[in-house]
Inverse folding.
């Protein structure tokens, strides 16, 4: 049984107590209409894939989409200006045990090209309705520190892992988002432009060149967590994620 229902270019996720929607013609907007159990995150938008304006993000560039089990995959053609083919797979998971994340959203982005040399850099972006953000600074101790000062903030590998923890006001649910260490170039956190306190998190992926016939993949993962003990659980999630084997295919 598939957790995703595709209606033209719109896909709806319903798995356990996790609900979300994505417009595959506009993957940059990410997963919206999020609900985890009784907690709703109407102003959140998670794991959007932003590429060049002439590539992914244009409805006519979609060449295929499919749902299988808990996974949703969409592939996008490149263009003359940006000759990169992009495939994005979003995968959802419910809680697997009593001491486990409330819900997990994983994204694998793949890029390839038919030209001899191309620059496939793109961005994965999330919008969070909060200004309370912490960064993982010690993986062994699962220690997080508050990100001080005013946005924007630049998160780089020299300062620690690409793992951030967001705490929502008046909510018993937190959210941690992380980039796999082998895929982490840098991330930025900007103040949101919408009403109310929001932050926009943007991860830059594929910073180098892409050769013809080579497929590159990058992984980003988000975890909804109980607010009580969220830092320790987020640190455990990052440790498991960092140790996970790379995907063989989307």
């Amino acid at each position: 049984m598939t957790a995703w229902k595709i209606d033209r270019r719109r896909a709806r996720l319903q798995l356990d107590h996790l609900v979300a929607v994505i417009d595959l013609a506009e993957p940059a907007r990410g997963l919206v209409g999020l609900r985890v159990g009784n907690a709703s995150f109407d102003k959140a938008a998670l794991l959007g894939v932003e590429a060049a304006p002439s590539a992914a993000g244009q409805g006519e560039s979609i060449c295929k989409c499919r749902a299988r089990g808990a996974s949703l995959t969409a592939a996008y053609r490149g263009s003359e200006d940006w000759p990169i083919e992009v495939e994005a797979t979003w995968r959802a998971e419910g809680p697997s045990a009593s001491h486990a994340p409330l819900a997990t959203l994983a994204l694998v982005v793949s890029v390839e090209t038919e030209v001899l040399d191309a620059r496939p850099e793109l961005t994965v972006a999330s919008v969070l309705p909060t200004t309370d953000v912490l960064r993982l600074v010690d993986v062994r101790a699962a220690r997080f520190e508050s990100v001080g000062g005013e946005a924007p903030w630049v998160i780089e590998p020299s300062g620690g892992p690409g793992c951030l923890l967001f705490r929502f006001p008046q909510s018993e649910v937190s959210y941690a988002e992380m980039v796999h260490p082998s895929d982490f170039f840098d991330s930025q956190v900007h103040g949101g432009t919408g009403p109310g306190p929001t932050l926009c998190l943007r991860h830059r992926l594929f910073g180098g060149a892409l050769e013809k016939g080579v497929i590159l993949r990058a992984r980003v993962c988000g975890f909804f967590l109980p607010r009580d003990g969220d830092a320790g659980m987020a640190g455990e999630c990052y440790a498991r994620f960092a140790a996970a084997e790379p995907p063989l295919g989307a």
Q: What stands out?
A: The domain at 4-243 is CATH 2.70.98.10 (Beta-galactosidase; Chain A, domain 5).
